[in-house]
From TrEMBL, chains A, B, C, D, E, F:
It comes from Planococcus lenghuensis. Its EC number is 5.3.2.-. The keyword GTP-binding does not apply. This is Tautomerase. InterPro entries: 4-OT, 4-OT-like_dom, Tautomerase/MIF_sf. Belongs to the 4-oxalocrotonate tautomerase family. It is an enzyme of class 5 (isomerase). The keyword S-adenosyl-L-methionine does not apply. Keywords: Isomerase. The active site is at P2 (proton acceptor). One of its GO terms (molecular function) is isomerase activity.
Amino acid sequence: MPYVTVKMLEGRTEDQKRALVEKVTAAVSATTGAPPEKVTVFIEDLKKSNYGVNGKLQSDV
Amino acid sequence: MPYVTVKMLEGRTEDQKRALVEKVTAAVSATTGAPPEKVTVFIEDLKKSNYGVNGKLQSDV
Amino acid sequence: MPYVTVKMLEGRTEDQKRALVEKVTAAVSATTGAPPEKVTVFIEDLKKSNYGVNGKLQSDV
Amino acid sequence: MPYVTVKMLEGRTEDQKRALVEKVTAAVSATTGAPPEKVTVFIEDLKKSNYGVNGKLQSDV
Amino acid sequence: MPYVTVKMLEGRTEDQKRALVEKVTAAVSATTGAPPEKVTVFIEDLKKSNYGVNGKLQSDV
Amino acid sequence: MPYVTVKMLEGRTEDQKRALVEKVTAAVSATTGAPPEKVTVFIEDLKKSNYGVNGKLQSDV
């Protein structure tokens, strides 16, 4: 606790995900007072063909 | 806003997903008053081996 | 199946939710081929104080 | 209803998932009073490279 | 890990939730091999006015 | 995109949530390259009576 889920378009590198987990954990810990070892981060990779905005599938845009 | 997530068995074609995003966005916009460009749709593909009903894995049914 | 979740700002009336469920179910059924009785809709009410865009809590905007 | 989602590291066998669905459905039915045929279970497979604890991506640990 | 979410209609007592957490944790631990102290359970209470099946808001049924 | 959900025990003040949204948005933007105006944050408040660890409801602990 807290549990953080980041949903974003697929294609980020493992280096980007490593940095994301590090920095988001620090931000959550600093602002909620939870110790870093209690912060869990889940990343969800989204395909453009599973993502729609304004009625349009983003793989078409 | 609104954010819509549709979880369904994998195997739908991109044409079906395109139509789904278009029609669901229209339905949400018409009934909530949100403009279509503010409606986001996420699709989640579910494997039968990750789906259980009545205690039975659906890949066995 | 399919399972649809609609997250939106709180404050919609029960009439709006009733219409939302009806129209979204019809849209999902028509485009996926699932019969309407297999379509489930969950609505999640979001408070502005639990919603941030561009780094700003929306209860402040 | 109820709808149960189990998020866990990928790599479980189909036999483990079959047992998980069976036993979790029984546990939910027994404690909530819902009949087993009304219990739905979704499994989400998580990659270690999408999972962070204590600021560290678990694929590095 | 694993992380379990149980979404169900509101109105269950704390005793039912206590039993649910105990029994679901045991079922998940026994079938996945994860130790009980690594199993997390989240309960989500659903209002009938936020739940639709077959195009009908369940608060109307 | 990205969409971030932070689930945590209820009781944080609006000031804490404001800081959380600001700092998490900055962390996500810096590490993914997404502009801040494309980062959305949802906060979910969790009751202790809806949260279980190690088979124990946290309202009992």
